[in-house]
Here is the input.
Amino acid sequence: MDKNYRFEPELMTDLINSLKRLPGIGIRSARRIAYHLLQHDLKGASILSSSLTKAVENLRNCKGCNGFTEYDLCYICSNQLRDKKLLCIVETPTDQNSLESSHSYKGLYYILMGRVSPLEGIGPKELSFHRVLDRAQDGIVEEVIIATSFTAEGETTAQFLIDMFSNKDIKTTRLARGVPAGSELEYIDTGTIAWALLERKQVG
Amino acid sequence: MDKNYRFEPELMTDLINSLKRLPGIGIRSARRIAYHLLQHDLKGASILSSSLTKAVENLRNCKGCNGFTEYDLCYICSNQLRDKKLLCIVETPTDQNSLESSHSYKGLYYILMGRVSPLEGIGPKELSFHRVLDRAQDGIVEEVIIATSFTAEGETTAQFLIDMFSNKDIKTTRLARGVPAGSELEYIDTGTIAWALLERKQVG
Ligand SMILES: [Zn+2]
Ligand SMILES: [Zn+2]
Here is the structure.
């Protein structure tokens, strides 16, 4: 329930509404942030405005992995030392980072930027799974490593991927279930992740 | 603990850092918000950037009440129907809104934009109490109504104000303690606030 701020300046209302649009920010937080910025951190407000503009104008999805980059290919995809025969599919850049931090994977990635979630109306189509398939069928990739989270939605996502690759000439593996069921990948320590990568098993 | 994102585009890191600077936003939320904006809500990112810029450039503190306004005087301060003999001191615009919503106050306001908090190093000086005093001594104000929260910090703030006005020729009152102790003003229903205004008692 939001009280009616009839006397609030329109520019303040606009700012609060645009903050409220952010995920996880309710009306109270939005208002608190807006007041804080205007009263105590004008510089922070300007910096945020400018970094938003720069990010929107310059960042795009990497043609190789779908991650964020300023160029056509990101830092990892353009690294000639990476093993192009391995393609690891993750849900988010944060999950990708967890894998990188384990220092036990030298292949490439594909970032779904989400997970299948029937309740939210997010299916393979919304996540553009056809692009994952195109990417994996570049004639170089020999193995797809599915590294979605071991949550209900992560499992559903994995199953869709397994089905999609089932009749393709590509080895499909999945991280070993060494991580506790029901947990998010990004919260797992890197040692466990390294172990799960090593013990990955073929599923398709 | 934040993992090292060595391969993250600098513009993304900048955006995440500027989001992390917002009150109540940790590194995980900042990253989640940044990814969401870039992947799913570019328009929201642009709107936020532009509303931040407009707010920073056009909003200022009202010369009358210290609230936010696009003009020298805000909507309330420039309303000739308000009773200029009453000055109600509140901590935040949200508290002011709570009082306005009770439809039982027709005087003017002064918004401290904070509260005395020794632990955070915020005292009368940081809140520019001298400006409250100047404002109240305009020769028109006859009564100052202290409407700080009934929390420990709100009580401390009230006491500083009471002391400041103690030897001045201005009646000083406080909202009746009709509201439960330990609660924030902004969470109180308007009926209780109306009653507390009516029952306000002189304290200085
Ligand atoms: Zn890439
Ligand atoms: Zn004003």
Q: What stands out?
A: The first strand of chain A starts at residue 60 and ends at 61. The helical segments of chain A are 10-20, 27-40, 42-58, 93-101, 129-136, 152-165, 190-198. Chain A has two domains: 10-58, 61-202. Strands of chain A lie at 60-61, 68-69, 83-90, 107-111, 143-146, 171-174, 201-202.
